[in-house]
Amino acid sequence: MFNPRRRIAAIHDLSGIGKVSLTVAIPILASMGFQVCPLPTAVLSSNTEIPGFQLVDLTSHMRDFINHWKAMQMEFSAIYSGFLGSPDQIEIVTEFIDDFRRSPQLVVVDPVLGDDGSLYHSMNGQMVEEMKKLITHANVITPNLTEACALLDLPYQPEMSEKQLCRVLKDLCSHGPTISMITNARIPGNLKQTFVYAYNAGDKKFWKVSCDYVPAQYPGTGDTFTSVITGCLLQGDSLPIALDRAVQFISTAIRATYGYGYDNRHGILIEKVLPNLNAPFTPGCFELLNGEES
Asked: pTM of the entire structure?
């Protein structure tokens, strides 16, 4: 029977300006029919791409919020965490998952640590070690290539072969998640496209989705991708369809944004393309890989 109160606990920061974290997750998941229950980790005047941002850390309040939810006997169809700013916040999220876990439930962790081969300025080795522990509690993880290498203590390579990527995906799943993904992957000799790779340890299948490279960078695309993935999987989409829909949505949103005289630091204009989330699915370019032999 359809449950009109399918709730998602979204554990992210909230920026007043700039489409990242909760300002991405809430509209996307609400458009897909879910009640989003935000557990804010911090409130910022703008995302961190914009100089001069002001931040209020809510770590000391998070357990009080959670205890109120416990007293209300809240239940969640999914738990979804993104950027976490300290080891204390990772510990709180781990406790939250343990306290609110039920079966069946989707637990998605976007292990935000860095990009382009480097950790973000607020991240360090301790955060990587704590994030390694957090992903063991997840069903699904969505690191980019930098984050995947950090979680496995691998040297970063800007380009990897499909054989290498499949090995990384399997190794990530060996730490607990059923599904691992690597976003923004590049293949040697192909500079015109980027790829998302995924592995489902449940059926031992590897998937790949490609998209054309657009010469622009926007904060929040990873949050957008994982938010769509979370909604699709919770709706019952298969992994390849979820991947395809997420990549198509981001590609369309980037192209819709790219045509404007717009400050890229404010993120993509998802409002332009939110109706696409409820359009009939049109297969794009997902591909099943023979990862065992590649």
From this structure: 0.95
